[in-house]
């Protein structure tokens, strides 16, 4: 068996949720579990996130899976993209899923197919485009709100930051102002029980005055940094995913010999190479620059550089002069080596690394 593992640390997930709750003590917290809990696996994550007030998913089929796993524990489930056709609108009501409404077509379904009073689906998350320019109503959000309020729906105004990770980006202040202005108008017109939800993980940390009634946290739950310039240790977050493998072969190179496909890496001195049983087929990014792995031994921890092209099943590291050998465990990202570092080496973001892990590594839970 290949000793390549993705371990999900439930204690870390629960800890991270508690950290976020301390950042937003007056808001309800929606745990974002779309894309199979950012690649971590819904079944392994949901039990550790039961302190969340709701779960956020992208689509109806994702909501169904969350619903199945939560079973009798009734949890609010919100479809961030709303429904895609009229049948889904009915199905969402049957299951008690709450919908975002971001466009006229969805608005028409809600207005012409009312839900019973008091049903959870009587809550509409009305999407207002404050600057992301992806989904949502513009100024016509006021008309949409009026029509929905007339039909008896409860409203939560929702919007999404484009640049919240970069605290000083000018778009943030603009989005916060637009959001506050419309929410104030809606409360004046239709009552103070209209709620608001603006912040993702980065917004929760960077803009404590913009939390409103609901915050939506994703990446922070999984223990990667949502904000530029702060690492997870400063933020008191713990990695939820440990992606690890082992050295399963070693060989010695003479100066002038190359490693792996294309022969693009050449030893400039006698070099000891460790072969790892992991590659892009497991979700490790094939393209990266100066990436390293972490090998922890009783007498210390060693960073070893990846050398040569990463293959589907294997990759090679330079272990010259390191006291390591066949069978030693190697951390790709997780405890001791944050996914944020690997993301930088791979010129991407932690979100993408997590989502692109495959089902090939053996998945297990740490409690
Ligand atoms: C995914 C998502 C979030 C969570 O974002 P993070 O940066 O992972 O905290 C929040 N809101 C919406 C609408 C999302 O799609």
Summarize the structure.
The chain is α/β, with parallel strands linked by helices and 367 residues long.
Key terms for this structure?
367 residues, alpha/beta, TIM Barrel, Lyase, Ornithine Decarboxylase, Chain A, domain 1, eight-stranded parallel β-sheet, six-stranded antiparallel β-barrel, 11 helices, 18 strands, elongated, binds pyridoxal-5'-phosphate
Report on the structure:
This protein has 367 residues and is α/β, with parallel strands linked by helices. It has two domains: 9-225, Alanine racemase (TIM Barrel), CATH 3.20.20.10; 241-365, Lyase, Ornithine Decarboxylase, Chain A, domain 1 (Beta Barrel), CATH 2.40.37. It is built from eleven helices and 18 strands. The protein has an eight-stranded parallel β-sheet with strand order 8-7-6-5-4-3-2-9. The protein is elongated and about 80 Å long. The model has no long low-confidence stretch (mean pLDDT 96). Pyridoxal-5'-phosphate binds next to helix 9 and strand 9. Belongs to the alanine racemase family. Keywords: Isomerase, Pyridoxal phosphate. One of its GO terms (molecular function) is alanine racemase activity. Residues 240-366 form the Alanine racemase C-terminal domain. The modification N6-(pyridoxal phosphate)lysine is found at residue 34.
């Amino acid at each position: 068996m290949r000793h390549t593992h993705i371990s999900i640390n439930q204690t870390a997930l629960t800890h991270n949720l508690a950290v976020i709750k301390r950042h937003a003590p007056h808001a309800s917290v929606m745990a974002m579990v779309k894309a199979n809990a950012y690649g971590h696996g819904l079944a392994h994550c949901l039990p550790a996130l039961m302190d969340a007030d709701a779960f956020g998913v992208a689509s109806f089929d994702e909501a169904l899976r969350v619903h199945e796993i939560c079973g009798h524990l009734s949890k609010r489930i919100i479809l961030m993209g709303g429904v895609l056709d009229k049948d889904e609108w009915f199905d969402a009501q049957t299951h008690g899923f709450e919908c975002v409404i971001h466009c006229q077509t969805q608005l028409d379904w809600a207005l012409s197919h009312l839900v019973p009073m008091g049903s959870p689906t009587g809550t509409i998350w009305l999407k207002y485009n404050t600057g992301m320019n992806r989904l949502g109503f513009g100024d016509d959000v006021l008309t949409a709100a009026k029509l929905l309020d007339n039909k008896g729906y409860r409203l939560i105004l929702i919007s999404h930051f484009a640049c919240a990770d970069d605290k000083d980006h000018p778009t943030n202040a603009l989005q916060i102002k637009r959001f506050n202005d419309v929410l104030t108008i809606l409360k004046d017109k239709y009552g103070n029980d209209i709620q608001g939800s603006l912040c993702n993980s980065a917004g929760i940390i960077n803009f404590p005055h913009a939390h409103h009634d609901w915050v939506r946290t994703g990446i922070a739950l999984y223990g990667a940094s949502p904000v530029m310039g702060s690492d997870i240790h400063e933020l008191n977050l713990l990695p939820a995913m440990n992606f690890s493998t082992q050295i399963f072969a070693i060989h010695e190179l003479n100066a002038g010999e190359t490693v792996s496909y294309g022969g693009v890496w050449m030893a400039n001195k006698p070099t000891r190479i460790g072969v790892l049983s992991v590659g892009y087929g497991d979700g490790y990014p094939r393209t990266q620059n100066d990436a390293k792995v972490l090998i922890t031994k009783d007498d210390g921890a060693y960073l070893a550089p990846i050398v040569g092209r990463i293959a589907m099943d294997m990759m090679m590291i330079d272990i010259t002069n390191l006291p390591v050998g066949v069978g030693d465990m190697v951390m790709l990202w997780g405890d001791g080596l944050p996914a944020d570092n690997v993301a930088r080496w791979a010129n991407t973001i932690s979100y993408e690394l997590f989502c692109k892990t495959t089902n090939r590594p053996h998945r297990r839970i740490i409690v």
